[in-house]
Design brief:
Blueprint lengths: L10 H5 L12 H10 L3 E6 L4 H11 L2 H10 L1 E6 L4 H15 L6 E5 L5 E5 L13 H14 L1 H18 L2 H4 L8 H14 L17 H13 L3 H16 L13 E2 L7 E2 L2 E2 H18 L2 H17 L10 E2 L2 E2 L2 E2 L7 H5 L4 H10 L24 H16 L6 E2 L2 E2 H17 L3 H18 E2 L3 E7 L2 E5 L2 H18 L2 H18 L31 H16 L2 H11 L3 H6 L5 H12 L1 E7 L4 H10 L7 E6 L21 E7 L2 E2 L6 H9 L4
Helix pairs in contact: 4-6, 5-7, 6-7, 9-24, 10-12, 10-24, 12-13, 12-17, 15-16, 17-18, 17-19, 18-19, 19-20, 19-21, 21-22, 21-24, 25-26
């Protein structure tokens, strides 16, 4: 019989709806039941594409004896971390404090009031290498609950005090006379250089994550000055990822991370946020260094998103699973016999040589495709062989797709598409970006510029979180700069003002949850960037942009309040604060470009072509026809002089250069460091 998850919409929760564990969704009724029965809560947090979540389900949650023990002694709650990042943030902080590490599946034990007293991540079905089995942990907790309850209540009270005090910790670190943004940025870059993996690219050891936010910050620095060593670090990393098994060489797009330091063996799930951010990162790298391979990665990654991850109405789904047919990576790997059944002999030789295929394989007897040698002049033969392999792979059982649409992640996808449409340029990407923008306005927004967090099968649900608002603002501003249609800017400003009203925190910065959100044991406030920007770092980024567009000092003041305390954290651990680095870069030198001219006139398009010609991460652009009214303060009072049909103004640090109608003069103004 289905448990209490049967009526949920989350694909992850529905995966567990027929477990013998009597799962409940998070909610006041569930917490009330735990209190009335005076039972501890077992809280399990994961997501649909999480491989080890599936393993723990198979080993423990489908085990009748383990399920019976849980049902007798606990109230069991299952949470989709993508639907409830607020709960995930709170209880991940608790588990990290308890064990020194976190991850998913997240397993937490709570008092009936929701305070955590013990936790961990994956627990095996049987004892393994000194790790107790899940059943053993359950039995020990119940023994302590029944015989030494006071110890668990004390542990819960101590952890709750830690969680509450941790919210103000960054403010305590605020130094007297904070360093200027440029100085913080440079110190952080030195820290990144020290942890760089010169052999394989990227940072740190296995498992290795792509770090697009850090790469964006490095690209921003490279865009301002020629630094050969920095360029080598960027290109080595991008080249290694694009050649490695973390990249899908047949279908496009990136897997979530590499289990080794060489980018060879991926964890095979594919996430919307990774592919949106990495497509944008490779786009910016292509703008700077013009490697054709980078543009190919952009186009193939966006093709993947448009082909496999887009709802017919324009929004984007969340993830694809790592597993198919119950096996991790089965959809993506190949044996030599597999390709011999599909390809001609000369194609087999080329594919096996280029992608390093062997009879033994490099992953459980099969081969993860990774580029070992360049195909040379065999491009036509290669593409024909790849087409055949793609077609054959299409007949396999595909990994499950998490088809909920999340607001913040769609903001990231919108930014990538809008920028690609502007830079490459591409009508296909522009049309996709506009459809995504329409989906956001019609399906994810409610009156008063309030955001729904999630959408599935026509039903929007959940209060939006800070990162939802901030990422949508950034996406809508990108779409405005591509289309120059002010309706997108109007929506972005409305969302910005709602974000300030409902999320602002006294003392600076923002909370992750709105003031009218469900009351939790603490109001979370995430600062560290993870695979996605934290709500606070992205909010700071868009406030800086909105300050320039609007001329309103309030936006700048709020951004400054957020940036002020962050310097020591960013300098000490830059790998975890990539979006903050981009915010510091903006704060140190944002460039405003106001353009007035007939949008169809060759002179106007020539000026816009210069604006979009290379990667200038600190620039924003606004434009309108001559004589037209605009809601954007940057454009106020500006008209071409004399016989000029178009003119552009470049401003830095509240100082503007004289208007120009000459594209080459505009290029010189943009490439110089002073107006």
């Amino acid at each position: 019989m289905p448990n209490h998850l049967a009526g949920e919409t989350s694909p992850y929760l529905l995966q567990h709806a027929n477990n013998p564990v009597d799962w409940y969704p998070w909610g006041p009724e569930t917490l009330r039941r735990a209190s009335e029965e005076d039972k501890p809560i077992f809280l399990s947090i994961g997501y649909s594409a999480c491989h080890w979540c599936h393993v723990m389900e198979r080993e423990s949650f489908t085990n009748p004896e383990t399920a019976a023990f849980l049902n007798d002694h606990f109230i069991s709650i299952k949470v989709d971390r993508e639907e409830r990042p607020d709960l995930d943030a709170i209880y991940m902080e608790a588990v990290t404090a308890i064990t020194g590490r976190g991850g998913w599946p997240l397993s937490v034990w709570l008092t009936p009031g929701g305070a955590p007293f013990y936790g961990g991540t994956y627990f095996p079905g049987s004892p393994r290498f000194g790790t107790p089995s899940f059943r053993q942990v359950l039995e020990k907790i119940i023994e302590t609950w029944q015989t030494r309850r006071g110890e668990l209540d004390h542990a819960a009270a101590t952890m709750l005090a830690h969680l509450v005090s941790d919210q103000s910790e960054p403010d305590k670190r605020r130094p007297e006379g904070a360093a200027p943004p440029s100085q913080i940025f440079e110190r952080a870059l030195r820290g990144l250089h020290a942890s760089y993996d010169s052999a394989n690219g990227g940072w740190g050891d296995a498992p290795k994550f792509p770090q697009p936010l850090v790469l964006e910050a490095l690209l921003a620095r490279l865009s301002e000055s020629s630094q050969p060593s920095l360029q080598v670090e960027i290109e080595t990393t991008l080249d290694a990822m694009a050649a490695g098994g973390i990249y899908d060489h047949l279908g496009g797009g990136f897997h979530r991370y590499s289990t080794d330091e060489r980018w060879l063996v991926p964890h095979f799930e594919k996430m919307l946020y990774d592919n949106a951010q990495l497509a944008r990162c490779y786009l910016h790298a292509w703008q700077l260094v013009r490697k054709p391979r980078y543009r190919t990665v952009v186009e193939d990654t966006l093709k993947y998103l448009l082909r496999e991850m887009r709802h017919p109405d324009g929004g984007f789904f969340s993830a694809q699973d790592a597993d198919s047919e119950g096996t991790e990576g089965a959809f993506f790997v190949w044996t030599l016999e597999d390709i011999r059944q599909v390809l001609a002999p000369e194609e087999v030789d080329l594919i096996a040589t280029m992608y390093g295929m062997t009879a033994q394989g490099n992953f459980e007897g099969a081969n993860i495709l990774h580029v070992v040698v360049d195909p040379g002049e065999n491009l036509d033969l290669l593409e024909g062989a790849r087409d055949k392999l793609r077609s054959a792979r299409g007949n396999r059982i595909r990994p499950a797709r998490d088809d909920k649409v999340l607001a913040g992640w769609n903001g990231l996808a919108l930014t990538a598409l809008a920028e690609a449409a502007r830079v490459l340029p591409s009508e296909r990407y522009r049309e996709a970006a506009e459809r995504a923008g329409e989906f956001i306005l019609h399906e994810l927004l409610r009156p008063g510029y309030r955001v729904f967090h999630s959408w599935k099968d026509g039903l929007a649900s959940g209060n939006g979180f800070l990162d939802d608002y901030a990422c949508l603002v950034d996406g809508l501003l990108a779409l405005y700069q591509t289309t120059l249609a002010e309706r997108w800017f109007v929506a972005a400003r409305g969302l910005t003002d709602a974000m300030i009203e409902y999320f602002r925190r006294q003392g600076g910065g923002f909370y992750d949850t709105s003031s009218d959100h469900e009351t939790l044991i603490t109001r979370p406030r995430s600062l560290q960037d993870s695979p996605t920007p934290s709500g606070n770092s992205m909010a700071t980024t868009v406030l800086l942009k909105m300050a320039a567009y609007s001329g309103e000092s309030t936006y700048w003041t709020l951004a400054e309040e957020s940036l002020g305390p962050m310097g020591p954290l960013v300098e000490r651990a830059p790998l975890g604060f990539g979006q903050w680095l981009s915010a510091y870069h903006l704060a140190g030198g944002l460039v405003e470009i106001a353009l007035v001219g007939d949008m169809d006139h060759p002179r106007t398009t020539a000026l816009l072509s210069v604006v979009n010609s290379t990667f200038r991460p600190a620039q924003i652009v606004a434009a309108r026809p001559p004589g037209a009214t605009s809601v954007i303060a940057m454009l106020a009072g500006r008209e071409p002089s004399g016989n000029n049909v178009a003119a552009a103004w470049v401003c830095r640090h509240s100082t503007c250069a004289a208007a120009t109608s000459d594209p080459e003069e505009l290029r010189t103004l943009l490439d110089s460091q002073t107006p």
